[in-house]
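To: structure subgroup
Subject: Chain for Friday's discussion

All,

I'm putting the inputs and outputs inline so they're searchable in the archive.
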Amino acid sequence: MKLKTITMEWTGDSLVLIDQRRLPFEEVYVTCADYRSVALAIKEMVVRGAPAIGAAAAFGYALGVKEMVKKSASYDIVLLQMKNVKEMLERTRPTAVNLFWALERMQNKLIEHGKYEGLVKVIEEEAMKIAKEDIEINKAIGRNGAQLLEDGFTVLTHCNAGALATVDYGTALGVLRAAKEQGKNVKVFADETRPYLQGARLTAWELMKDGFDVTLISDNMSGWVMKQGKINAVVVGADRIAANGDVANKIGTYMVAVLAKRHGIPFYVAAPTSTLDLSIESGNDIPIEERSHEEVTNCAGRRIAPNNVKVYNPAFDVTEHELVSAIITEKGVVYPPFNENLKKLFEE
């Protein structure tokens, strides 16, 4: 039972992740042989992107089950120990809801199986299902979103919502890939996405490997290139979407959405339904992770700010639903009013 994509490889005994901190200069891989190393890889952003985090956590859970089954011959003890494994994986990053969705699904499968015999196989199969489903879901998102892009469009994207942020193919970049597969000539502007530079390091790298015409800009150029008429649409991913359509995504997304609204440019969010959190009424209830201050004060291993300067480094922001033109999911394109139409995705 094996899986291999650009983002991750499941060998049956370990999860191998491309170290996204080292791109685009080096393609280095990190081997996670237990759930603790998977948790560390998620926390330290070896792997990032909401769907990829969810799939990695599922494989981490599977590694946990393997370890606990070796230590005990009792299903009840394994079930008790896996509660601790799940909690460790959940503590890695608070904002992306896919992490919690995947771990809840894994735990439910463990409880549903209800016996020691065959447990490892069943749990591994469930993690594999999550990973393979993610690829098919992304392709469906791509097909649904591609209809919103016309031939000759130039799209601005923020952060990295591509194959590296998922198991494969991507959400926002999946829309671009699908449009290209349909024969549309789509150009891309990728903003750098300070402070972690996912746009500069990852999105530009991914799109160039796929043969896209991509232009890199600094974050503070987005309004100007919109004003110059260079952008036809904005497509971004999401880490959590509230019931009213408020979207938590990489810091800087809100700024791009405001500028798009000002210039009459459609702002699209591409995300799987697993990113929807209908238990949360609005973005005000979404926990926002704050990361290390060194991500702001340092760049490429060198300090660029004065010593002892105060730093505020939220990893995400929330874009209000009024700024979102449509949310692209694997089940279709959802338009406002989101508080009514997002619920319909789960009624079918």
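Points worth raising on Friday:
Residues 149-344 form a domain with the Rossmann fold fold (CATH 3.40.50.10470).
The chain has two domains: 3-138, 149-344.

D.
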